């Protein structure tokens, strides 16, 4: 108020004493600067808080990975759940949480997390692979195969070719465990054209092909591996086994002998080597043998088969003294006894028809005794396998 008798405002001319005395533009500029400072401070605080949250999430995530790798799935669950508190909807954390749930036996919960991830990214190779593993653990073959295929043809963040190859290998191994040999064989054959020049990987695939019964493709892969690494013992053993199953006993012995020179071989490979050697050294009909050698082999084979026939009959409680002789074992014994007086080395060396007749009798004894008394061992097994060799 202007006092009585005064003509001037007592407050006028005292600039800066009151905020409303500041010019409007200056006031707006100051307000804007204040807001800018507050915005910067708020942004900094929010970022610092978010950075702290992310650091805690990473810390819990790393801890969960360590616990899971150490086989402590329940402890890993708590760590991954803590990580999700600080980093919600993080697909990497959710994926690891699903893995931990599966490892801890909580498959339904793991499946729920994985299906949630799958709905967001149906083409994610990693998610499909984990769903396939859950299906495989539950022995659900169609479901597992479908997810494995989705993983094989899905998207991967890095090294897609390697991830797809490993997923197909895992699928083939699962199918073999499930008894689906034909389907496993198809998956492995589809895999072979894209294999890198890696002897270990080629040998791994070839060994799986052997388990499916696809020996020719397996041999080809074993040979590829051996061209890259000539003395690679696993490839030599695998090639020996595949050759043995293809009844190429000479090649089997050659590969297995080379493998043995490289070091210890498996008990199965050792057994195959011994059997292949017996087959090659006892075959009366092998090429490039003299008449004397054929006769000696036929004589030994006949004596061995007679011993096998007697032992099998005794084990089954079959008597060769009783009449009539009605069982297959008894009939074979009568046939062998009628032939026995002629089985002399001199006769066998001169008479090729007699040699063939004796050999056929030996083979028939081995086949019949296998049906009656199970698979034999040693020389009897060698003679049995020879009886199955068409040539």
Q: Can you put this structure into words, describing what you see?
A:
With 391 residues, the protein is mostly helical. Among the domains are: 195-282, Tetratricopeptide repeat domain (Serine Threonine Protein Phosphatase 5, Tetratricopeptide repeat, Alpha Horseshoe); 291-387. Helices cover 73% and strands 0% of the residues. The chain is built from 18 helices and no strands. Helix 8 (181-191) packs antiparallel against helix 9 (199-212) and helix 9 runs antiparallel to helix 10 (215-228). The longest helix is centred in the first third of the chain and has 46 residues, at 24-69. The radius of gyration is 40 Å and the shape is rod-shaped. The termini are far apart. 32% of the residues are buried. The model has no long low-confidence stretch (mean pLDDT 88).
Q: Short description, anyone?
A:
The protein is mostly helical and 391 residues long.
Q: Any key phrases for this structure?
A:
rod-shaped, 391 residues, single chain, Serine Threonine Protein Phosphatase 5, Tetratricopeptide repeat, mainly alpha
